[in-house]
Amino acid sequence: xxxxxxLDLDGYVPVEPVEAVAERIGxxxxxxxxxxxxxxxxxxxxxxxxxxxxxxxxxxxxxxxxRVARERIAAYTGAPSQRIIIGxxxxxxxxxxxxxxxxxxxxVIVPTPTFGVYESRTPLFGGVVRRVPRTADFDLDIxxxxxxxxxxxxxxxxxxxxxxTGNMPTxxxxxxxxxxxxxxxxxxxxxxxxxxxFLPLAREFDNxxxxxxxxxxxxxxxxxxxxxxxxxxxxxxxxxxxxPFNVSTAGLKAIEAVLDDIDYLQQTVNxxxxxxxxxxxxxxKLNFLQPYPSQGNFxxxxxxxxxxxxxHRRLERRGxxxxxxxxxxxxxxxxxxxxxxxxxxxLMAALRGMAGEI
Length: 358
Ligand code: PMP
Known about the structure:
InterPro entries: Aminotransferase_I/II_large (IPR004839), HisP_aminotrans (IPR005861), PyrdxlP-dep_Trfase (IPR015424), PyrdxlP-dep_Trfase_major (IPR015421), PyrdxlP-dep_Trfase_small (IPR015422). With 358 residues, the chain is of the alpha/beta class. The protein has 2 domains: 4-43 and 263-354, Aspartate Aminotransferase, domain 1 (Alpha-Beta Complex), CATH 3.90.1150.10; 46-261, Type I PLP-dependent aspartate aminotransferase-like (Major domain) (Aspartate Aminotransferase, domain 2, 3-Layer(aba) Sandwich), CATH 3.40.640. Helix content is 39%, strand content 17%. The chain has helices at 4-7, 18-25, 46-54, 67-77, 89-101, 117-121, 142-148, 171-178, 191-194, 232-241, 249-260, 262-284, 308-317, 341-354; strands spanning 33-35, 84-88, 107-112, 128-133, 153-159, 183-187, 208-213, 225-229, 289-291, 298-303, 320-324, 333-337. The strands form 2 sheets. A 7-stranded mixed beta sheet has the order 2-8-7-6-5-3-4, with helices on both faces. Strands 1-11-12-10-9 form a 5-stranded mixed beta sheet. β5, α8 (171-178) and β6 form a beta-alpha-beta unit. The longest helix has 23 residues, at 262-284. The termini are far apart. The model has no long low-confidence stretch (mean pLDDT 97). Bound molecules: 4'-deoxy-4'-aminopyridoxal-5'-phosphate.
């Protein structure tokens, strides 16, 4: 009864639920320091919370057209609202892009290492993933990517800045990819932390998709809100395949409220950027981790002495969660989300405390 593409999935969930970890280590969930999911440690704004609490029409279906929220995003981004689609997290938009573009056997290029969802979802839609490894310092290998393009290539995913490596592609690199004619999906999930966007290229190229999210900078990961800025023709097709009520009324209201309160959220983004510098300098002083400069709200570290999974376990026992990887490319790396100053202090104390033992 079940499709082979589904049977072939390993069902592996990369991050264990915090509730399960808390139970295992015997700590209340609230005391766990969450540096493993690139969330905003300051939460969202009071304004969002007030709007959600006082809204009294939850008995009605949401606006399938997402009109008001899309207009607010248009004002925020400068992109025309008819080219914007809001998704249930940007994860859903990745699915919709695959659903709208992939015929069985079509190819999707994924420069690795990167965010795992592009690779895990593509086969479900009948697509074939072509992994193209990044260079030793995690730069895009543009020659290798352009050589991997065939007449079956539909999409090339480029994460900007890249998760988990933290680096940005250059405009020149993106332009070279756009010239291949494939649809280039620039995933700008961490845009607010980098301040750099490839959106201006959409004026010149009609094969560029920009993905953004409210999960990171806006502190709304739990609401599941992302958006895509699409070429006109593709936007029209995505509207056809999107579930009419994919985004809840609460989600649409939250977007309006967030974009009414940008100053507050920009302050939390600034705090996180300052803390990113402090965390990076602290990590550099350790003699068993090598941090990579990052334009996101996280820092990738190569474990130069000891074992990443062992360090992960030792931190977890102290109630500090960071991201570990089973992917062989990243087996000895850890990704650490930038938290509040007190989170950095607790993390650094724990890491310094284990320096003699590993
Ligand atoms: N793209 C990238 C690069 C990400 O890191 C993430 C979240 N980890 C997402 C997309 C998904 O974000 P959302 O919560 O909007 O689904």
